[in-house]
Structures are given as C-alpha cells and as structure tokens.
Amino acid sequence: MSxxxxxxxxxxxxLVLVAFxxxxxxxxxxxxxxxxxxxxxxxxxxxxxSGLGMGYGTILTPTLLLLGYxxxxxxxxxxxxxxxxxxxxxxxxxxxxxxxxxxxxxxxxPAAILAAGSVAGVxxxxxxxxxxxxxxxxxxxxxxxxxxxxxVLLHSRRHIEYRRWKMVLLAAVASFNKAVSGGGYGPLVTxxxxxxxxxxxxxxxxxxxxxxxTCLLAVTLFLAQxxxxxLILFVPMCAGAxxxxxxxxxxxxxxxxxxxxxxIGVVTMLMGALTLIKLAT
Length: 281
Fold this sequence. Notes:
Blueprint: H1 3-26, H2 32-52, H3 56-66, H4 71-95, H5 108-129, H6 134-154, H7 164-181, H8 185-195, H9 200-224, H10 231-253, H11 257-280
Helix pairs in contact: 1-10, 2-3, 2-10, 3-4, 4-9, 4-10, 5-7, 5-9, 6-8, 6-11, 7-8, 8-9, 8-11
C-alpha cells in the first residue's frame, strides 16, 4: 500500500466515522443499537461488492426485509447508498491503479460505454417491465448470470481479446436486468467484461463506476415519483458501505489476476443459482 493511498484511506475512514456519530447524535430517532446492526451489515455487503463488483443489493435487500423494514424504504435507500459507495469505490480503485478511469486512462472508454448504456437500458427496462411477466424476467436473469459465471471459470486462464461491441451489448442487457428485477447488474457486468477481454481488477472498478450512474437514474425516478429516503435507515447504511470501500479495494489490488477471475466466476454462478432458487421457493 502506497503512503498516499494509506493517507487518503485514513482520512476517509475518519470522515465517515465522524459523520456517522454526528448524524446519530443530531437525529434523535435513530436507535444506536439498530444503527450499529445496519452499519455492520452494510459494511460486510459493500466489502463484497467493492471487492468483487457484485452482491451489495442482492444480499442487503432480502436481509433488510427479513429484519422487518418496508420495501418502499429499502429500495430507494439501497440505490442511493450504492450511488455514493460506487463513486467512492471508483475513486479508490483508480487511486490504487486497479483501474485507470482518468480521461486518458485505458479504462475510461469502456466505463463510459457501460455508463451510457446503463442509463439507456434502465429507461427501456422500466417501460418494458410494466408489460412483461416478472417471474419470466427473473428466470432469464438467473440463467444469464449462472451461464456468465460458468464461462468465466471456463476461460479463466485464457487471454480474451477486447471487443467494443460486446461492451455495448453487455451494458444494454445488464442495465435492463437491473431495471426489471432490481438486481443482476454487478454479476453480469463484472463477469461479462472479463469475457470481453477486460482484466478482473479493471472490470470491478469499471462496474462500480457504471453502476453508480445506473443508481443515479433510478434514484432520480424514485424521488420524482414522490418517494423519500428513510434517514433512520440511510444514515447507518451509507456509513457502513462507505467505510468498507478502502479495505476491499486494497484487498483486490494484491490478489493474483488468475485467482481473482476464478473467484468472480464462482461468486457469479452462486448469485445466479440463488436467483433461481429464490424463484423456485
């Protein structure tokens, strides 16, 4: 870890912890015990998401439902926290050189293509989702994610040539999945980039960047329809997610590329399998 990265990480950790403590003190309605539980849960979920490019919403949303929180409070709050944590993860991935997202960086164009495609895909997906059976869509999402993980494992030790048209197609399909099912973005985008020739570390950083813009559009649509953020849920959720980012980004920077591809393939298949199991139960 470089001294510069360590300095910025420590500054970020202190800032998040201070903001979290002040928010609890100022907002009298936040129970400290519940807040710490949500904080720890979101820390763990974002640790996985920033490290592997997937898993935050997929794990967090059903867990919060089981804890008794209302879906109308969960969804926009999760999206808003993903927006902030995604931008933060992009910054730290870029700082430690897992990815190069500067205007002249090698990963800027793939990230821009995914971000633009994600915005378009969400818009189309929202419109189509109103007229298509949800179970059928979720089944398709699960199968696609499961197959993506399998092919990542199959080609984990092969060099794959980058093709721009694959990225465009990937952005459209992944963002459509996000719009119609509320999940399936990270597993498909991260594994799909690897199958398009992007390195494992870069694909994780690019996914964080692109998903942040997808969440921005989704949050904007929620707020435009009169939905509001539940601050009692948002404060600990956001703090836990933001605190975990420097840790997971550093962990990924020291993992071997071939091992990282294998891990991404296994986790992607697991996400797809869980999606299909959820439909069957």
